[in-house]
Design goal:
Layout lengths: L2 H13 L6 H27 L4 H28 L2 H4 L5 H5 L4 H9 L2 H10 L7 H14 L1 H20 L7 H15 L3
Length: 188
């Protein structure tokens, strides 16, 4: 079984658990998003281009925080995004009861009454716009939205710092730096 398949398996198992930790969520994101979407393609290209082992290590160090930031932003967009830009319904993570760090942090920091409201809405097949707005309010009021945005900022800075160490110049390195900047502004 490869790492992406293992990440998918962990994701499926976690959906059946009552509680999940930040570490478990981040492990799933690293295995699924960071490895598959960023690290794998970068390493294949680098190997085909004759990269040194030290460059491969830098690319691994770049892709992990980049993938985590991408997924955290994706989770925010899944609740707060614009459906016309996303191309999918906002609230699908809420309807599925998906265990995201955004929702985990909200549950950890919100009031007891807000936690009861979240738990009654998450996983609801009859999700309404009013329910989505209530979840948005709780996420915002609890500080989870701002916490996640700050964490994304820190992860993207880590990725940018890492890639600055890469000993190549030109379009490839510029593209990877620009990708970090793009992800910091991504709204779809």
């Amino acid at each position: 079984m490869n790492k992406v398949e293992f990440g998918q398996e962990l994701d499926v198992v976690s959906s059946r658990k009552d509680e999940i930790t930040k570490e478990e969520i981040f492990r799933i994101h690293k295995l699924k998003t960071s490895k598959y979407t960023f690290e794998g393609p970068l390493l294949i290209g680098a190997l085909l281009g004759g990269a040194k082992q030290s460059d491969l290590e830098i690319l691994k160090g770049y892709s992990t925080p980049l993938g985590l930031a991408f997924q955290l932003q994706d989770d925010i967009l899944g609740v707060f995004g614009d459906e016309s830009k996303l191309g999918k319904p906002v609230g699908s993570d809420i309807r599925e009861g998906k265990k995201t760090f955004l929702l985990l942090k909200a549950k950890e920091t919100c009031s007891k009454s807000d936690k009861k409201i979240l738990e009654s809405i998450l996983g609801s097949k009859n999700l309404t716009a009013k329910n989505i707005n209530k979840v948005r309010e709780i996420i915002t009021r609890s500080g989870s939205l701002e916490h996640n945005k700050q964490l994304i900022h820190e992860l993207l800075k880590e990725a940018k710092d890492e890639i600055s160490e890469l000993e190549i110049n030109g379009d490839g390195k510029t593209f990877m730096i620009n990708l970090v900047d793009y992800l910091s502004e991504r709204d779809y």
